[in-house]
Design brief:
Blueprint: E1 3-4, E2 9-10, E3 15-18, E4 27-31, E5 37-54, E6 60-73
Antiparallel strand pairs: 1-2, 3-5, 4-5, 5-6
Length: 103
């Protein structure tokens, strides 16, 4: 395997997959001054530790892929749904208009 000349980084770094679990809750809740609530949930999609490479200080090299979901609940706790088949001003094909319910 040839090495990158900059820092002897391998052309490919191999990782051993690690199982992750939340230490406590995976959700953080914030309350805004207007009474709205923001719920943020974080998930580790994949985590691994390199088997053929260490950082320059000798520590382990990790690769972590995470995702986050954000749900905003307005202070009046109201929202609207459009009846199926009724056109609205907002395009339903626009993915930013569609929101998923919070679980």
């Amino acid at each position: 395997m040839s090495n990158n000349q900059n820092r002897d980084i391998p052309d490919e770094i191999e990782f051993k997959m690690l199982v992750s679990k939340a230490n406590g809750s995976d959700e953080v809740i914030f309350e805004l001054e207007d009474g709205s609530i923001i719920k943020i949930r974080v998930n580790i999609d994949r985590a691994g530790v390199a088997t053929n490479y260490h950082n320059s200080d000798g520590s382990k090299h990790y690769n972590v892929q995470a995702s986050m979901s954000v749900n905003v609940i307005s202070s009046d706790r109201k929202y609207k749904l459009t009846k199926p088949g009724v056109k609205s001003d907002k395009s339903v094909s626009d993915k930013s208009v569609i929101s998923k319910p919070y679980k």
